[in-house]
């Protein structure tokens, strides 16, 4: 058992009433939709405003959430999300405050929540303790952007122990044997990196992304979620029509935050509008 002093009764209660990814994807399939999964960094631009942003995303129809724990060197992210990490850290966010952030979200939604976290934060807290506290606070999945599947034994053990889906990235340059290896380890869904490079706003979806989705679909029964550079409704439509089960949208939402730091109400209005547009794009006709 974890060394953290947490009530095991509360731990079980926190994990029993949440929507799973399996339930979410089944419901979306029935309703002929792809998943709209917005990404934000916890505490950007500050704790309370960040909570308000999450409430808006839930109200506008987010099917699940991906929450980033801020880190000083987010190597997989482009400038927009790097700046979000710095704003969150400068606002006083720590790993403990991030878990408190998740706990607060769980007071108003039961949709799946995934973490995007750099492994240094997991290692520093202790792998078992991190996963235990993640489960206690209502986390469905964990993606460590800088953890390779070949070195993920400890994380996988903890994920299985606490019934958390371990997510891995599949990219354009992932060979078939590694794709099959990841498919055998992963649960929840496969996170497909749409482009070579870091996160950020892109103008269009390349044919190579469509081909990648089709290649992965031939070798997995897990849902496919596409992220990195998904910033327009036409991107979402193209991705879903290519066979993916949904998209993760981050940089375009976070860009709204960065452009309206001194105008909170305008920021929230624009995020609501942006999220509605992205959600509407998930319809499959």
Distance between the terminal alpha carbons, to the nearest Å?
48 Å
CATH architecture: Alpha-Beta Barrel
Mean pLDDT: 89
Q: What is the number of E strands?
A: 9
Element order, helices and strands?
HHEHEHHEHHEHEEHEHEHEHH
Low-confidence stretches: 1-15, 197-203
Helix count?
Answer: 13
Task: Please write the CATH class name.
Answer: Alpha Beta
Name the helicity range. 40-55%
Q: Profile the largest sheet.
A: 9 strands, parallel
Compute the number of structural domains: 1
What fold name stands as the CATH topology? Answer: TIM Barrel
The coarse overall form would be globular
Find the structural class using helix and strand composition: alpha/beta
* Rg calculated over all Cα atoms: 18 Å
CATH superfamily: Aldolase class I
Strand content: 5-15%
Oligomer: single chain
Strand order of the largest sheet: 5-4-3-2-1-9-8-7-6
Report on this structure:
There is one protein chain. With 285 residues, the protein is an alpha/beta fold. It has a single domain (8-279), classed as TIM Barrel (Alpha-Beta Barrel), CATH 3.20.20. It has 13 helices and nine strands. It has a nine-stranded parallel sheet with strand order 5-4-3-2-1-9-8-7-6. Helix 8 links the parallel strand 4 and strand 5 (165-167). The protein is globular, with a radius of gyration of 18 Å.
């Amino acid at each position: 058992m974890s060394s953290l002093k947490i009530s095991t009764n509360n731990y079980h209660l926190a994990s029993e009433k949440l929507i799973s990814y399996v339930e979410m994807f089944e419901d979306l399939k029935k309703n002929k939709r792809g998943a709209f999964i917005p990404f934000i960094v916890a505490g950007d631009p500050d704790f309370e405003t960040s909570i308000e942003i999450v409430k808006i995303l839930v109200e506008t129809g987010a099917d699940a959430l991906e929450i980033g724990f801020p880190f000083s060197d987010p190597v997989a992210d482009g400038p927009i999300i790097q700046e979000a990490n710095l704003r969150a850290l400068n606002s006083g966010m720590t790993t403990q405050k991030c878990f408190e952030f998740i706990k607060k979200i769980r007071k108003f939604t039961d949709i799946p929540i995934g973490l995007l976290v750099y492994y240094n934060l997991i290692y520093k807290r202790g792998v078992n303790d991190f996963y235990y506290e993640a489960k206690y606070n209502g986390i469905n999945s964990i993606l460590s952007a800088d953890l390779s599947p070949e070195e993920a034994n400890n994380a996988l053990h903890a994920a299985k122990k606490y019934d958390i889906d371990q997510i891995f990235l599949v990219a354009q340059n992932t060979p078939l044997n590694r794709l099959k290896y990841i498919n055998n380890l992963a649960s929840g869904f496969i996170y497909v990196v749409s482009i070579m490079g870091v996160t950020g706003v892109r103008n269009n979806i390349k044919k190579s992304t469509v081909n990648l989705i089709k290649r992965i679909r031939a070798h997995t029964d897990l849902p496919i979620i596409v992220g990195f550079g998904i910033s327009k409704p036409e991107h979402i439509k193209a991705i879903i029509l290519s066979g993916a089960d949904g998209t993760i949208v981050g940089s375009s939402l976070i860009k709204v935050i960065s452009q309206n730091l001194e105008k909170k109400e305008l920021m929230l209005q624009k995020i609501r509008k942006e999220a509605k547009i992205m959600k509407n794009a998930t319809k499959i006709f």
